[in-house]
User: What shape does this take?
Amino acid sequence: MKKIPIQLLALVVLFFGSWFVLKQVDWVTVLKVKQKTKKTEEKLGDFFWDMIKKSEKESTSSFTITAVNKLKISICKSNNIDSSKIKIHIIEKDEINAFALPNNHLVIFTGLIEACEEEAELSGIIGHEIAHMEKNHLMKKLVNEVGLTALISITTGNTNSELIKSILKILTSSSYSRKLETEADLTAVDYLIKAKISPEPLANFMFRLAQSTNTIPTQFYWISTHPDSEERAKTIIDALKNKSIINVPVLKKENWDLMKKDLKKD
Amino acid sequence: MITTQNFPYIPGEHEAEKASSSYLMSLIAFIAGLPLPIINLFATIIFYFGNRKGTYFVRWHCTQALLSQLSVLFMNSAAFWWTISIIFRDETITSNYLAYMMTVIVFNLAEFIATIYTAIKTRKGIHVEWFFYGGLTHLLCKP
Assistant: This one.
C-alpha cells in the first residue's frame, strides 16, 4: 500500500516531465504554425477584397488617397507598425462605413470621410481599425462566427455562395464584441497619443453620429454596427484623463479642404 | 506498467465478459470520435453503478476502469478548454500548448492500448493490474 503514493508521484513526474521536455522544442517554428495561419489569412483577405472590388467603385481621387495614406503612415510610424503591410482601399459610397479585412486590407467608404469634420476624427477611425488588425480581432471574430473549417474551405476553393455572402456580411458590418471594441478603442487611443494626434475627436465623432442615428439610421453604418457608441466615447474620454495630449496636424489645412472638396464633387 | 496477477478465484465466463465490457465502455467516446472528454467518464460511471453489486472480479475491473478514466478526464479537460480558449478567446497557439497536446496524445494513446489489452485479457478471465491504478483499486474494492 505504501507503494501507491510513490507510484502516483512517478506518474505525475512522468506526465509533467514529458511536457517539460517537449516544451523545449520551438514547435511553432518547427510546425510552421504562423506561416500556415498567415497563408489562410492572406488568401481570405485577398479573396474578399477581390469580391468587394468587383461590386464597388474604388475612388480615384488622388487628394483623398494621398491624405488617407499620410494619416495611416503617421499612426504606423509612431507605433512601430509596418505601414506598407496595411493596404488602404477607398470606396465611393455614401455609407458611413470603414472595416478591416483579413491580411491587413482596410476599406474606407467616402461617406465616412465626408462625415469627418476634422482629420483627427479620420485618424481615430483609422487607428481603431488598425488596432483590430494588430490585435488579430478579425480572424478571431471570423473563427468564432463562421468556424475554422468553413474558413479554410474558402481558401481551398469552396464556392458555396451562401457561406461567402454570410462571411462578407460579417466582414463589412465590422461588428465586434463589446470587449474587442473597447480594446480596439483603447489601443487606438495609445496609437494616437504616440502619433501626437488627439483622440478626443474620435470620441466626438462617436457622440455626434450616435445622436444622428435616430434620424437617419441606415446611413450611419459604422456607428450602428458599433454598439454603445456613447459609452465607448466616454471610455475614450476617461482614458485621456491625466494624460497630456498634443495635437499636431498631419495634413496641411488646405490639403484636408481640397480632399473634402474633391469628395463633394464626386 | 501492466502486470498479469493471480485473482483470489477463477472468474466465470459471464464475469469475464462483464469485466471486459467495463474497459470497452471507456472507449465509447474514442469510437464515436467525440472531442468531449466527459463522455468516456459518463459511460464508465454508468457501467460502474450498473455493476456495483456484481461479483468481486467484475467490481474490481469496473473500479480500475473508472479510476483510469478519472485521471484522463483531468488531462483531457485541460486540453479541451485550452483549445477552446485559443479558438474563441485571446489565447494563441504556443510551443507550450503544442507540447501539452503532444503529451496528452501520448498518454491517451498509452491508455487506449492498455485498455484494449486489458479488455482482451479480462475477457479470457485473466486478471490484469495497472501501475498505480491496480494498487488503488485494491484499496477501494474489497471482496
The first strand of chain B starts at residue 2 and ends at 5.
